[in-house]
Amino acid sequence: MAVNYGSKRIVVGAHYGMRDWLAQRVTAVLMALFTVVVLAQVLISSGPITYDTWSGIFAPQAMKTLTFAVIMAMLYHVWVGMRDVFMDYIKPVILRLVLQVFAIVWLVACGGWAIQVLWRF
Question: For the segment 74-91, what is each residue's pLDDT rounded down to a tens digit?
């Protein structure tokens, strides 16, 4: 009887890429729900939408945390999409690597900027 130590990695098949597909859908649903929450708060507020009204929506710590979670989800959503586009359409490996590194640096900078805007560091 043959004993199988470890597992074989299967790199082809119907399940390959399922994690990325699911991540895209989950993050899209999260962003859509957040949009509904913000729109509901805007519609509930009385009077014209001024800077004070808008900043009041995002003033509670819970809203800041939710906003940051959605921004992180959006950045991951963007990364998965851009990475797939680069892998599908950019054939020279060095150019693909440069574009992926640029995208990572840009997305990390956007995450840092989001922290700065939400918590005014």
Answer: 999 999 999 999 999 999
